[in-house]
Amino acid sequence: MSKQFGKLKEDWKNIKEIMLYGLGNVTRQHIDTLAKDFNILAIIDNDPEKENTIFRDIPVLNIYDAEPKCGKCKIILMTVVQSIQKSMKRELEALGLKEYEDFCGIDRFVTEWYWICKKQARIYQVDMAVTTLCSLKCKNCNMFVPYYHNHEKVTEEELKESLDFFFSKFDYVYHFSIVGGEPFLNGNAAAVLRCLSEKYLDKIDHIKITTNGTVMPREELVKLIKKCHVEIKVSDYSKYSSYNHKIKQLCALFEEQNISYRVLQDLEWKDFGFPHSPCCYSEVEKHRKECGVTWRGLNEKRIYYCNVIWSAEKAGLYKAFPQEYLSLEGGDGDHTKQEDMLRFVLGDVDKEINFCRLCGGCGADNQAVVPAGIQM
Ligand code: SF4
Hints:
- 32% of the residues lie in helices and 20% in strands.
- It is globular and about 55 Å long.
- Iron/sulfur cluster binds next to helix 9 and helix 10.
């Protein structure tokens, strides 16, 4: 591929066949879209319950059974969790395969391949925070919600403008995530879904809303969730704040409405240190890469390198540097600018993302694992 853009080697350009590594949520969510452009020869998964099965007419093989095809067919790692990607890499490298020659992560693949081969600006994931209000006060909230003194109201118009600017620059997003605060608390999640359903559903593969399960969505929102085939992720923190009955009520609603949902219990977070005791990493780039998050933040007509930075700024705890976000206003149709945007989204940045110096992040270099949802 082009020397100026991306990391994939030249011979990725002509591929028609791929293998996917991992039969988890990412594969289930995107396999149909990938199958429109590629012949998927096999899915690699070493889980004894999955190997030697068939998924959507595609054989699921363990790594050793798939080995004869490796090297002849590019492999896409179907996860954006750094620790899982790393263990997949180790396994493939043990077979003599090389990253960017023989395999790469889904986030890089969709951005580089579609830009180089089809001049389409595709990105894997974007998160949009529709409110900073929340019904809980989680001690290690990575959006720093308990530290807000003022919660500025975001208007429907502002949200729509951000979406319009975003889709004027990007052709496709695989994972559009609506987050908060608590997204069910005001009408903004409905406003975003209304706008997406009217204009942009053909540009998104999968929409997800993350809720803490304390608030019942209003009727209009329920209708839009169904219309947009949104998946709901319920993060259950009821161990630390007794609202289990509300989660049951919410799940009953999803069952009744045939809405796809998952309840995640006993979650763990990393303590980011910020703002109570900010970190001070000297090797910022190394630390940022170790963290490796893909949750770029779409807010206020900007894409923040990391949604955490937007929220730290919004809470009045930090002032973002210009290299920490992209402005989406102006410059439509300029390919050089589009390429710069894609580089930024991929994390191929020239300047330091300064906030990473202060933030513990999600990588293996932050050992501070804490139970999710402990209340302040
Ligand atoms: S270390 Fe950087 S990229 Fe990771 S969560 Fe913190 S601010 Fe975001």
